[in-house]
Amino acid sequence: MTKTRKTYDKEFKLSAVKMITEGGMKLSEVSRDLGVNENSLHKWKKDYLLDQQNAFH
C-alpha cells in the first residue's frame, strides 16, 4: 500500500505559521488542530522567518 502525501497551498502554510508567530499558539496546538505534522510546521516556520516575502513559492 502506498501513502499519498498531502500538499498544502501557500495560504494554508502562512495561516498556520501566523497562528504560531502572531497568534501566540504553541506549535503542538496548531499541529493538532490542523492535522499537520509538527516537523512540517517547524520547517514552514523556519522558511517563513528566513524570508517572509518568498516563503512557500
Protein described:
The chain is mostly helical and 57 residues long. It has helices at 10-21, 27-34, 38-50. Helix 1 (10-21) crosses helix 3 (38-50). The longest helix has 13 residues, at 38-50. The N and C termini lie far apart (31 Å). The model has no long low-confidence stretch (mean pLDDT 95).
Provide a count of the helices. Answer: 3
* Average pLDDT rating: 95
Q: How is the main sheet built? A: none
The ordered H/E elements are HHH
Q: Report the C-alpha radius of gyration, rounded.
A: 12 Å
> Beta-strand percentage?
under 5%
Q: What is the terminal-to-terminal distance? A: 31 Å
Report the principal-axis shape: globular
Estimate percent helicity. 55-70%
Tally the beta strands.
Answer: 0
Q: What are the main properties of this structure?
A:
single chain; 57 residues; mainly alpha; 3 helices; 0% strand
Which helices and strands appear, and what pairs or packs with what?
Elements (H helix, E strand, L loop, with lengths): L9 H12 L5 H8 L3 H13 L7
Summarize the structure.
The chain is built from three helices and no strands.
